[in-house]
Amino acid sequence: MKIVIQLLFLISVYCIYASDVALIKINSAITPSSSSQIKRAIEWAEKISANALIIELNTPGGLLESTRDIVQTIFNSKVPIIVYVSPSGARAGSAGVFITLAAHIAAMAPGTNIGAAHPVGLQGNSDTSIISEKVVNDAAAFIRSIAQQRNRNLDWAERAVRESISSTEKEALQEGVIDLVASSIDSLLLLVDGREVKLNSGTVILNTKKSKIVEYELTFRDKFLDFISNPNVAYILLMIGIYGILFELYNPGSIFPGVIGALSLILAAYSLQMLPIDYAGLALIILAIILFLLEIKITSYGLLTIAGIASLFLGSLMLIDAPGEFMKISLSLIITVVVVTFLFFTFVITLGIKAQFKRKSLGFEGMVGSEGRVIEEIKANKKGKVLVMGEIWSATSDEDVPAGTTVIVQKADTFTLFVKPK
């Protein structure tokens, strides 16, 4: 009976979705989060037996490793994949080129462009030049294999990597980079209807003329990972974590700053492991934390803070080893964090310096300089009684001091005060 119910459920799902086309929209840089979203969307499209999955793409580029994962997932998909660069003004830059070429059908909307797939971020001395050449050669071989697999223009694909060329939708169509230009998803469905698509399991004919679009809804996990995979968010979480721990160490027992700091550091660690981290930058930030902690414990009159600020600024600039500015931490955010950090520790240092010169306020030493009133006459070099700070003390003086006289405490020894008339 259970098997029959499952079969009926599968049949009902097939009847509902068999004529549908699934859709997922990617409107950000290509990261592990994007790769995960596309993978789950393909699995969902396979589960509902959709005619095809449209990936509506608008990206400036992203991480090569995540791009490889997406391409591999597309190649092994059991449903036809249509990459549609849209809407007008959108682009398939850098990593987007690889994904578009990997699709079973590649399409673009009017007013879009594709190209500039050259790996960036490596330049400088001879050593890094050699590494850069290896990365470019690897990317060129990768894009050639994709273009060859999909019968697209190999020469254009390689030039997109090596020379960073870019084309409009019309130029891309003429060059054999894409299959068609469509003004909308509805027109795209009409244009691809009846086309043959080769999957690993065999050839299928698309029947999309009367298909209904069913959009893949991102789960909370998808949205959350997409949010924290933003380099700026990861950096903010890292800084909140550092501030929280520093506040807790500076004022032990506060609890709340420590809890928030620890939670933020855990989230930052998870976020940063999804991003290309430069460990030299991370080491500089850790050095800055150590210098700030030493400033709290050691009076350096600001020298450790200045070194920590410099280390924090340089480490923040170097932290994300990204292939483009779209994956970098915002410079304005870095400057804001550094300025706030500088102001905070300037405040802490100022309090510390004031404390060094502040008159003692506790114990016998704290009574020196205080005023009191004689309540029992003091004979020269003999003891009498004085009222100081609300308490009665034995007191002596080198001169006679009658009762009712206002006196100043000059020093304190055990339980006897040495006073002088005001």
Helix content: 40-55%
- Biggest pleated sheet: 6 strands, parallel
**CATH fold node name of the largest domain:** 2-enoyl-CoA Hydratase, Chain A, domain 1
Report the top-level CATH class of the largest domain. Alpha Beta
Shape: rod-shaped
Low-confidence stretches: 7-18, 121-128
Identify the CATH homologous superfamily of the largest domain: 2-enoyl-CoA Hydratase, Chain A, domain 1
Strand order of the largest sheet: 8-5-3-2-1-11
Number of domains: 3
Beta-strand level of the residues, as a percent range?
Answer: 15-25%
SSE topology:
Blueprint: H1 2-17, E1 20-26, H2 32-47, E2 52-57, H3 64-75, E3 81-85, E4 91-93, H4 95-102, E5 105-108, E6 113-115, H5 126-149, H6 154-162, E7 166-168, H7 169-174, E8 180-181, H8 185-192, E9 196-199, E10 202-205, E11 212-215, H9 220-228, H10 231-250, H11 256-272, H12 279-297, H13 303-318, H14 331-357, E12 371-376, E13 383-388, E14 391-396, E15 406-413, E16 416-421
Parallel strand pairs: 1-2, 1-11, 2-3, 3-5, 4-6, 5-8, 14-16
Antiparallel strand pairs: 6-7, 9-10, 12-13, 12-15, 13-14, 15-16
Helix pairs in contact: 2-3, 3-4, 5-6, 10-11, 10-12, 12-13, 13-14
What does this structure look like?
- This protein has 422 residues and is of the alpha/beta class.
- It has three domains: 2-217, 2-enoyl-CoA Hydratase, Chain A, domain 1 (Alpha-Beta Complex); 230-357; 365-421, Nucleic acid-binding proteins (OB fold (Dihydrolipoamide Acetyltransferase, E2P), Beta Barrel), CATH 2.40.50.140.
- Helices cover 49% and strands 18% of the residues.
- The strands form four sheets. A six-stranded parallel β-sheet has the order 8-5-3-2-1-11, sandwiched between helices.
- Strand 9 and strand 10 (202-205) form a beta hairpin.
- Helix 10 (231-250) packs parallel to helix 12, helix 12 (279-297) runs antiparallel to helix 13 and helix 13 (303-318) runs antiparallel to helix 14 (331-357).
